[in-house]
Amino acid sequence: MCGLADTPEGDGRFANRQRHRTSPVGILIKLSSPPTMKLLNFLKPKPTIESYGQPAGVSPEQVQSLMEWLFASLLNAGYVERWSLREPPKASHLIWYDSDNPDPSLGKLIKKLIHRDEPIFLYRCGDRAMPAPQGYYWRIISEHPSTRIYQLEVK
């Protein structure tokens, strides 16, 4: 039996108690056995990455690599854990920006996405990053080796 003592938040005092959670449809789910936990982790919502614009001058392999890196970063940052079973999964957004051939519709899109309270990333395909909306700035994500990926942050 897996009680609270076997979870990161447990300290051993409640080893004989079992955790229960009510699912969105009202079914009581007993969280006591490892197979159940594995099943619930499988059913847990996963982050999605919405992509906008065209990755100009970026190979399909580079696009795939960047998406995998971004997905892993979201998981490592615990972004998935902020969702509950009652809320729909949130997305993050990746804007492909080519400063040599800018798409004016991307600025309007970013202003719309800001209201969703979801992470917005920018991949700089050209020499310059896109101008950030008023009150925001693009923070370079130095952990990525390309130094071309940014996250939109509030000033």
Description:
By secondary structure, the protein is an alpha/beta fold. It contains three helices and seven strands; from the N terminus they run ββαβαβαβββ. The chain has helices at residues 34-43, 60-76, 105-114; strands spanning 19-22, 28-31, 48-52, 91-97, 120-124, 136-140, 149-154. The strands form two sheets. A five-stranded mixed β-sheet has the order 3-4-5-7-6, sandwiched between helices. A two-stranded antiparallel ribbon has the order 1-2. β1 (19-22) and β2 (28-31) form a beta hairpin. The model is unreliable at 1-33 (pLDDT under 50).
Keywords:
single chain, 155 residues, alpha/beta, five-stranded mixed β-sheet, 3 helices
What's the assembly state of these chains? Answer: single chain
Mean pLDDT metric:
74
The number of distinct β-strands equals 7
* Strand percent estimate: 15-25%
| Biggest sheet details | 5 strands, mixed
Topology (SSEs and partners):
Layout (H helix, E strand, L loop, with lengths): L18 E4 L5 E4 L2 H10 L4 E5 L7 H17 L14 E7 L7 H10 L5 E5 L11 E5 L8 E6 L1
Parallel strand pairs: 3-4, 4-5
Antiparallel strand pairs: 1-2, 5-7, 6-7
Please summarize what this structure is:
By secondary structure, this protein is of the alpha/beta class. It has 3 helices and 7 strands; from the N terminus they run ββαβαβαβββ.
